[in-house]
């Protein structure tokens, strides 16, 4: 029987079959994705085939090919990677300039990973009700930066409802991933976007100004009339990137890629080479320093994984 993985808690997956049953399922034995060592061989959003047994639970026997997925490896270079979700039409990366503060490193790594599988990303700046003048100014700069690169930006508040209608119109007919650091308001937004949803939310830690990792499993919540899904996910901390060559990394930063066409050497890594059009563009502020730093950081990941034989 064929179905969609709508929820994942540890070893258990909830599969929604084509005839609408929800079946608790497990992966049989040592069944893993070709070439990738992943903590979750099956992800929310996967289309799978299951064998239902007498107790009413099932084994997942087959995963259909994925259209795309978003994968990360943990920042500490563990050997494992984690597939956040599969078969997405778009991702909403929820960002907060304050309480907690989302770093540009994190944003850029997420964006690059989404570029790798052509998942369109919308940036959602949440908690705008909390911003001081200085923070608002910083947010405006971020919005200008990412808008110019080509990532649509929405400034919202899940508390006041500001900007939420604008987000809701983007969801229709699509599978949308909600991702971001813990405490930025993903579950709060989900509850607002799909009335009737009661995802657990919790205050951030006052002492550390960070989220409490309230959501502990990934779940696809259907839109009214089954007109798409929103995927709520646990907050993520670091976003390690996965097996990327320097020229690939370049191509995942659209504005860096554009300037790289004018580098003197075709195999330029944009780190030190003479005649590098990227370094020149950073110097002239056509490429943001923060984006270039993120690019360099991802190059370094690559070097380290070489020594540590991460995969
Ligand atoms: N002031 C303000 N608080 C918000 C807003 N959105 C969410 N919050 C609060 O932020 C806290 C964290 O929200 P959650 O929705 O649990 O965050 P999350 O991103 O789902 O966190 P994890 O599940 O840990 O990844 C809660 O106390 C929310 O009430 C907002 O727009 N403004
Ligand atoms: Mg949550
Ligand atoms: Zn270059």
From TrEMBL:
Binds 1 zinc ion per subunit. GTP binds at residues 126-129, 180-188. CDD domains: S1_YloQ_GTPase (cd04466), YjeQ_EngC (cd01854). The keyword Glycoprotein does not apply. Its EC number is 3.6.1.-. It comes from the Bacteria. GO terms for biological process: ribosomal small subunit biogenesis. It is found in: Cytoplasm. Belongs to the TRAFAC class YlqF/YawG GTPase family. RsgA subfamily. NCBIfam families: ribosome small subunit-dependent GTPase A. HAMAP family: GTPase_RsgA. This is Small ribosomal subunit biogenesis GTPase RsgA.
